[in-house]
Structure to design on (290 residues):
């Protein structure tokens, strides 16, 4: 019996050491990627102390909509698109905080829309942050919205097993040789396709109250003495009470009905490549023309 328990203890200790070693290896690779696979690892891998004219934050409705390379050609201004698909207000706040750790921008732009009231973390969009959850600044934010954060931080390799499809072995291997789709355009990627001409109208609603994460972004930009602008990107054939956003947010501009051509949309929420080119010009003319 004593030998049996001894073998169990040895097995458990060996298993723990293996998980600890794997945790160190995975985290090291995410901290020093050969090919940054997410916007989070890309931002963290950029040369520090960049002085930019502007930085864009948001979800796929910025990622696929605003092209910094085109803005550079039209205005001469240098900027970066730090939005990524599925990001809600919490993840946008994390990205703004991460940006200001090592970089500066004269203007910050945050896209808001029908997801304005969301204050929880997004299960998909939170994944790029999980490899860095042992850093106090990131952990403290995540634990405020995720009750499992303590296990993800302190149980070795648990966070990678929990998100294996997004952070596991396949993603680690791809980080050695497969480049991302956005680095060459400073964070932009075009969306293909066109919305079905028979698509039914959409009606979306925003509740009139403040969002704690956006309020934090406002406070950060005041502290950093950076101009902050909020805006809503175009929708197709959609009703949305954006007057709430104008009431609640400073320096807000509403583009939600600014493009009506069906050929510019891949779906109700997203512009295709043609629409993105048109919206980028409209965005440049609105904010950078003078």
């Amino acid at each position: 019996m004593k030998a049996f328990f001894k073998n169990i203890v040895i097995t458990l200790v060996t298993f723990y050491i293996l998980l600890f070693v794997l945790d160190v290896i995975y985290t090291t690779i995410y901290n020093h990627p050969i090919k940054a696979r997410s916007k989070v690892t890309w931002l963290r891998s950029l040369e520090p102390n960049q002085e930019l004219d502007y930085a864009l934050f948001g979800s796929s409705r910025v990622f696929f909509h605003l092209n910094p390379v085109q803005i550079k050609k039209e205005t001469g201004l240098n900027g970066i698109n730090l939005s990524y698909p599925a990001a809600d207000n919490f993840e946008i706040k994390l990205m703004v905080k991460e940006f200001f750790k090592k970089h500066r921008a004269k203007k910050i732009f945050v896209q808001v829309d029908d997801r304005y009231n969301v204050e929880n973390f997004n299960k998909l969009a939170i994944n790029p942050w999980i490899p860095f959850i042992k850093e106090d600044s990131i952990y403290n934010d995540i634990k405020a919205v995720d009750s499992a954060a303590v296990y993800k931080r302190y149980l070795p390799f648990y966070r990678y097993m929990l998100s294996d499809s997004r952070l596991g072995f396949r993603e680690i291997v791809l980080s050695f040789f497969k480049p991302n789709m956005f680095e060459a355009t400073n964070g932009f990627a075009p969306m293909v396709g066109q919305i079905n001409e028979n698509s039914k109208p959409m009606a979306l609603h925003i509740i009139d109250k403040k969002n704690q994460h956006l309020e934090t972004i406002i406070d950060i930009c005041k502290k950093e003495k950076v101009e902050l602008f909020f805006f809503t990107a175009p929708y197709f054939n959609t009703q949305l009470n954006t007057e709430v956003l104008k009431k609640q947010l400073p320096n807000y501009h509403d583009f939600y009905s600014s493009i009506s051509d069906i050929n510019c949309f891949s779906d109700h929420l997203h512009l295709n490549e043609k629409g993105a080119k048109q919206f980028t010009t409209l965005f440049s003319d609105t904010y950078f023309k003078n």
The chain has a mean pLDDT of 95. The domain at 2-287 is CATH 3.40.50 (Rossmann fold).
